[in-house]
Amino acid sequence: MDFAHPIQSVIPGVRGRILAVLAAATAELNLRAIAAIASVSEAQASRVLPELIAIGLVERREMPPSALFRLVRDHIAAGPVLALARSRDRMIQEMGDIAAGLPIPPVSMIIFGSFARGEAGIDSDIDTLMVRPADVDESDRSCLESIQEWIDRVGQVSGNLVEVLEVDEDEVSERLLGAGPVWQDIQRDGLTVHGRTLDTFERVGSG
Fold first, then answer.
1. What residues contact 123, with CB distance under 8 A and at least 6 apart?
2. Were 169 and a residue from 19, 23, 66, 134 both cysteine, which residue would form a disulfide, CB within 3.0 to 4.6 Å?
3. Average of pLDDT values for 16-20?
4. Per-residue pLDDT for 15 more than 90?
């Protein structure tokens, strides 16, 4: 999934770009503004908008010397469009639910990299820090099953490849203090979808 441009990934071309603009808009927009934000020409926008108006998904209101447009959010087709616009938020919720239901729920599940920054495209991996409980060995069968289930289920829901960095609960503070390149990324961009946040480990390390 292209989480940076979710509507355009499902509805390609000018139509998807314009719908993405209207779905994000909090006020009516004129044609010039829509074209500029969508990075399309005004001619392209002027061809697509009437098609969307014709099916009732977009409403046009005359406001001389121009016209204003808005997404009709009560339209039956608006729901899927708005749901696509919220794909990243829904994915975060889904990842939290998946983590909580694993054979061994992790102490923390933290997403970093492009997804955490809101930049994940169709070819982006979902980079994950999985913190396992201190009393669980990395070779424990249930632990290995948890890692594989996370990879499989998140990959299926998102359509993206999933990479996992697994560490013991007792190792996190030391890794944070070492601050290698990957851990710098985790500290800068880390997004907790389940369990303890990084700052709780940092406090333990500094204490």
1. none
2. 134
3. 98
4. yes
